[in-house]
Each structure stands twice: as C-alpha cells, then as structure tokens.
Amino acid sequence: MNMRIGILSLQGDFAEHSHATLSAAYRLNTPCTIVHVRTKEQLEGLDGLIMPGGESTTMSKLLLRKGMFSEISKIPKILGTCAGAIMMAKKVEGAIPGQHFLSLMDIGVKRNAYGSQASSFQMRLKTSLGDVDATFIRAPLINFLGENVKPLAYAGENPVAAYEQVGNSHYLACAFHPELSTTLFHEFFLKLGSNEIAQQ
Amino acid sequence: MDNDVIFKIPILFASVHTIAMPSKRHLYCGCIITAVSMARKKIFKGPMQQRRQRVFAPQQPQPEIPLRQAQPQQPSSPVFGTFDVKSGLAQMLKGGVIMDVTNAAQARIAEDAGAVAVMALERVPSDIRKDGGVARMSDPLMIKEILASVSIPVMAKCRIGHFAEAQILQSLNVDFIDESEVLTPADEQFHINKHEFTVPFVCGCKNLGEALRRIHEGAAMMRTKGEAGTGNIVEAIRHIRAVNSSIASLANRRNVEYERMAQEMRVPYQLVLTTAKLGRLPVVNFAAGGIATPADASMCMQLGCDGVFVGSGIFKSSEPEKRAEAIVNAVANFADARALAKASEGIGEAMRGLDVKEIPHQNRFSFRGV
Questions:
Q1: Which residues contact B260 (CB under 8 A, 6 or more apart)?
Q2: Which of B43, B72, B122, B318 lies 20 to 30 Å from B24 when distance is taken between CA atoms?
Q3: Which of B90, B93, B95 is nearest to B305 (CA)?
Q4: Is residue B24 among the annotated active site residues?
Q5: How would you list the strands of the sheet with B117-120, edge to edge?
Q6: Which of residues 60-79 of B touch A (CB under 8 A)?
Q7: Looking at this predicted complex, what is its ipTM?
Q8: Which domains, ranges and CATH numbers included, belong to chain A?
Q9: What was the pLDDT predicted at A17?
Q10: Which pTM was predicted?
C-alpha cells in the first residue's frame, strides 16, 4: 500500500525531513508519497504527518492563521522534532502569550531549556532504535512523561525521544534532530501502525 | 617445481625405457630429448617467472600495519560549537523572516508577528545611511534587553573583520552574528576567521566567489547583500541571480575547469566541487537588502532563497505590526498568489524607497568587504 506522508512545510528544516523520509522508505522498501503541506486541504487523506524543527512560535502562528489545528489532530500518526515536539506536547513551559499548541501527546516540555545557541550541542546517543548522532539546537527539554509514554532515548538523565499510542493514534517526539543524521527514527515512524511494531 | 623433481623425471623415464625397450640407442635418444625439453622449460620459463615475481609480487610479506580501530560506539559527552551545530541553527530558520529591531518593544512585535529571529541593532540601515559617519556594533545593554525580552533567536551585527566586536557579542550569548557591510568595515584585508568562534556567523555576498570565500572562512549561513536601507529590491535580485547563474554554470565541467574556477574565486577546489554537486550553496542562503513588501519577499523565495531578512522595511513603514505579519505569511505561502494577494491587503504604506542609481558608488554598502 502506498503511504502518504505529509511534511508540514511552512517553516523549518522540512527539506531535510523529506530527504530522510524518502531514504527511510527506500530502506524499508515501502512505497511512500511525500506531500509538502502548506494548506488545510493538503492535510486530507494523510497516513502520517511530520512536523519539522524550526521556531515553535512561528509554526504556531502560521497554523493558527491557516486554521489547521483541528485537521492535524485527526491524523493517525505524527512525528515531531524539536519545535514539532513542542507543538505536540500537552504541557509547555516558556511559551509566549497567545501561542497555541496541538496538545496531543502526554509529555511536558520546556522551551529553550538548555539556553542560547552557545549551549547547542552534538552527541552520540544510545537509543532503543540504535545508536545515533544527535544534534540538539536550542532544544526543548522533555521534563515530564505520561503513564503510557515510552522513552526511546536519554541524554544524561533527560528523556530526549518518546513514543505514545493513544487509541489508534501514534505520536513520536524528539527533542533533537534525527533528520540531520539518521533515518532510524523515520523508519520507525513509517512502520508505526503496521503489525510489525505491534509484535515488538 | 623443485629442481630435484625436474631432474628426477628423466631418470625415471630412462628406467622405464630400459625395461620396455631393448635398444640402447633408443634409450639414449629418449633420455636426451626429455632432458633437453625439461631444461628448455627451465631456462626459458625460469627467469621470466622470476622477473614477473620481482615486478608484481612482494618479495616478502609486508608486516601488517594495524588500521586505527573505530571507537566502540558508546554514548559520548556533548560537543559544543561544531560546524554541524552552527549550520544546524541556520537550517531551522529556513522558510522564516528575520527582522531588524532596535528595542525590546519592537522585538516583541516581531515575535508576535511570527519572525523566526530578530536582529538587534541601534539604528536600522536606512537611518545609518541617512546619518552617515561610522556605524559600529550596538550597545551591549540594548542587546541584553532584547535577549531578555524574546524567546526566539537573537542576532547582532559586528563590523567586517572586527573580531573583537565578535568576541564581545559571543560573550553576550547572542545566537548568531552578522558580519555586516551595513556597519563601517574595520579591516579592508581580512574578514573574521569564523572557525574560531562557537557562535554561528551569517555574511553577505554579491556573487558566488564572495559566498564561497565566506563559507571557507567559516560562515554557517549566507545572505545576499542587496542594498540595505533603500527599500529597493533590485540589488538583492541582481545578487541572487548572480549566485544562481554561477552555480548553474558549474554543472558538468571537467576537473581542470573546477580547478581554474577555484583559483579565480580564491577558494579550495573541494568547496567548488561540493557546490557543483549540490547545485546550490553548501549552507542556507537568505535574501536581504531592500525587501519592503510581501511581494518582494515572495519574489526572493521563488528565486530559490531559503528565507528573508527584512531590515528597515518593517519599522520604517506606516503600520509595522500588520506589515510584519504580512511578510511572514508571504514567505510561508510564497508560491500561492491568492494568499499573497490577501497578505498584501490593507497593510498601510511601505517605507519610502530610494533609487539605487542615485546613490554614488562610494556610498553603496554592497561594495564593502569582498
């Protein structure tokens, strides 16, 4: 079955996500169509949506102006990296007044918790999907995990990637940017919802 | 074959002959013929084989030098300020608008409008142009105020080549430094060596040579120079087109041509090759200098820029809030003419423009620092 994966292309590193998703689909040998989502109409009939890294304030404003919030909530699986993860979280610290969130996933995040760009860093991470080179750029801190949320990776003591299944919906959030260095998370994301993952 | 074996065979042959054939003459003949043929093989093949051996095979097995083993892949400790981290921030700014602001209130307007970052400076370029004199780095106090008032990245400008100003800005924890031609250049020979800094740099360029030289010096992001403070898009478009057409002309060349181009542009051959392979600049490239309307922003995006800087265009217009929001919307929907029309509706008067032809050559910012 041909999977339709949307990539929110309003702002951020959506081009890198598109590249990572196509490489992941190639590795899994799954047919996959990429939709660069810029309007509400393009959200219809998607099997999954990727929310890229960028500025969560900008992303929130643009989604609100386009009235895309309710449509996004209906999509069966969502991957959010960095700003995307902030958009998905239920609790957000450090948001600016008037900033709206999708509030889909039972995690708490703190914006710019590590500080300015001077505190951005790179490190090799052991994740439950495999080892990855993770880049944290003005990254959010995941400071709370709900009961059903499974952590996939830790940097020190902080969870930096998490997965949750709510009914038939799957949510995957990363505080770092897997799209810049690996396809592991995109492969996991593409497999979500299929029987293969249920067996794991 | 061993020497002994070669000479044993005829003897064996001879003994067989003695049994089978009574005639001694036959025996000698057979024996001699066999011996000669064996000897010939030995004489003619032997040296050849030896020669071949000398050329193609090592005389003795070389002692094996152990290759450096890859480190076992353990979770490592964090590394700060690598080029990946620096250019990574630029990647996250793509599809966004970076606005010049001069105080905390303007910074908040920019953040509310949906800017991805703000550029903190004392005077916007059109005022710098009007006032004349030497333009320098802004007051650290003002930069700190802006850093405290917004949650989005804050950029600040330093003079071309003025590494001390850059060190000061880095110590203030700004997120990005713009080594800008809008300020009066401090060094006419050298730009800052940007590899020495952990904070990323953005630099202006008019053509591919300038862009690659800045990238070689360590810039994590590029922007066109345009002609800042004019509200006139013509120079920015000229620079975007110059870079684009140079990159297009890099396609399908021979290596010697790349070598020649690298020499002409005074950059490493490898950087030219990378650019040719990518078909674009190896770092994020924004448009800057003269953008005043949503349509200007859309035009730059359609020409292949990753985002836009708006300097004087917003806070020198009649209704900054509306214009800021309109330009953010225009960049997010740059290919959708209907959305652009909606964004351009009723946003007040744009900044008063300036014809670039009226500016004497020596007063143009874009000729500073090549």
A1: none
A2: B43
A3: B95
A4: no
A5: B284-286, B221-224, B201-205, B176-180, B154-159, B117-120, B97-101, B308-310
A6: 73-79
A7: 0.93
A8: 3-198 (3.40.50.880)
A9: 96
A10: 0.84
